[in-house]
Amino acid sequence: MKSLVLLLCLAQLWGCHSAPQGQVLHYRQLNCDDPETEEAALAAVDYINQNLPSGYKHTLNQIDKVTVWPRRPFGEVFEMEIDTLETTCHALDPTPVANCSVRQLTEHAVEGDCDFRLLKLNGQFSVVYAKCDSSPDSAEDVRKVCQDCPLLAPLNDTRAVHAADAALAAFNAQNNGSIFQLEEISRVQLVPLPPSTYVEFTMSAPDCVAKEATEEATCNPLAQKQYGFCKATLTEKLNREEVAVTCTVFQSQPVAPQPQPEGAEAAGLSLDVLPPLSCGEAASPQASPPFRLEHPLVRSLHPAHYDLRHIFMGVASMESASGEAGHLRKTRAVGAAAGPAVPLCPGRIRHFKV
């Protein structure tokens, strides 16, 4: 009996490292700075920004890895890892990301780390799998470039909430009687000297004005959503507080459902032939819904920034693993061993390393 169990274990282990004759899957290994690779990476970044319900837009910083697999009956799948950096443009800001400034190290930069699979079909890229994480730079690294620069603070800090409320009240008082409501607090930094709170937040316009509403809660959102983005500093003085606030009101945007992963199924393809990320890993049976905020102050697991982890948690459009996918799991290592080992990645750093 023990011999039989041992034999079964050896057979399973061999299945992850061998391939039946004639089943070797050939692939292309591109340079991370190849124009075709960069085109795929930019399509991935566009997908991130199109699906961001909140936080800040991201821009491409570095391509870490890329492998191009053939797809039956046609097309190719680009499996890649990319690094992104947070910009100063909010997700609601219509400014193209190419025109957005990258948040600098002195401002406590945030980096994204993403795994993508993109289908290239008829020269067009579509995302079939997305998994991201993001994290701020370490406090030690910020201190190396700026000893006195304030660090990111929790987004639900009571001082941040108070500063946002005070800034929004000041903006509404100067805005010809209109009422804007707080949507979310996006960024907070606490400055020790002089004692002050820097906060960035978004607001939305309801369908009423101040003179028509006795309570802010009686206002309903507009059919054409209108958002604004504000930067404010609340400074504490001896017996009073001073608020400085600047806001940008964006053009009205129609309320639309959140974009879903385009996927290969939309192109009439089955994804059961794509090798999973590791041996024995099952494919996701359906797409995961994007993360949504239920309240302006509900935050992600990391309290100081909007974590991409909660938007792209392995979002995919692929069928469950089939027998054919099992064969390809076995052949992936064989295919990799067949090609020459050329150090083509990671690619160049476009901005700076976090």
TrEMBL record:
<comment type="function">
    <text>Promotes endocytosis, possesses opsonic properties and influences the mineral phase of bone. Shows affinity for calcium and barium ions.</text>
</comment>
<dbReference type="GO" id="GO:0050766">
    <property type="term" value="P:positive regulation of phagocytosis"/>
</dbReference>
<dbReference type="GO" id="GO:0006953">
    <property type="term" value="P:acute-phase response"/>
</dbReference>
<keyword id="KW-0677">Repeat</keyword>
<dbReference type="InterPro" id="IPR046350">
    <property type="entry name" value="Cystatin_sf"/>
</dbReference>
<dbReference type="Pfam" id="PF00031">
    <property type="entry name" value="Cystatin"/>
</dbReference>
<keyword id="KW-0964">Secreted</keyword>
<dbReference type="GO" id="GO:0030502">
    <property type="term" value="P:negative regulation of bone mineralization"/>
</dbReference>
<dbReference type="GO" id="GO:0072562">
    <property type="term" value="C:blood microparticle"/>
</dbReference>
<comment type="subunit">
    <text>Alpha-2-HS glycoprotein derives from this precursor, when the connecting peptide is cleaved off. The two chains A and B are held together by a single disulfide bond.</text>
</comment>
<dbReference type="GO" id="GO:0001503">
    <property type="term" value="P:ossification"/>
</dbReference>
<protein>
    <recommendedName>
        <fullName>Alpha-2-HS-glycoprotein</fullName>
    </recommendedName>
</protein>
<keyword id="KW-0495">Mineral balance</keyword>
<dbReference type="GO" id="GO:0005794">
    <property type="term" value="C:Golgi apparatus"/>
</dbReference>
<dbReference type="InterPro" id="IPR001363">
    <property type="entry name" value="Prot_inh_fetuin_CS"/>
</dbReference>
<feature type="domain" description="Cystatin fetuin-A-type">
    <location>
        <begin position="27"/>
        <end position="133"/>
    </location>
</feature>
<dbReference type="InterPro" id="IPR025760">
    <property type="entry name" value="Cystatin_Fetuin_A"/>
</dbReference>
<keyword id="KW-0325">Glycoprotein</keyword>
<dbReference type="GO" id="GO:0031012">
    <property type="term" value="C:extracellular matrix"/>
</dbReference>
<feature type="signal peptide">
    <location>
        <begin position="1"/>
        <end position="18"/>
    </location>
</feature>
<dbReference type="GO" id="GO:0004869">
    <property type="term" value="F:cysteine-type endopeptidase inhibitor activity"/>
</dbReference>
<dbReference type="InterPro" id="IPR050735">
    <property type="entry name" value="Kininogen_Fetuin_HRG"/>
</dbReference>
<keyword id="KW-0597">Phosphoprotein</keyword>
<feature type="domain" description="Cystatin fetuin-A-type">
    <location>
        <begin position="144"/>
        <end position="255"/>
    </location>
</feature>
<keyword id="KW-0732">Signal</keyword>
<dbReference type="GO" id="GO:0050727">
    <property type="term" value="P:regulation of inflammatory response"/>
</dbReference>
<keyword id="KW-1015">Disulfide bond</keyword>
<dbReference type="InterPro" id="IPR000010">
    <property type="entry name" value="Cystatin_dom"/>
</dbReference>
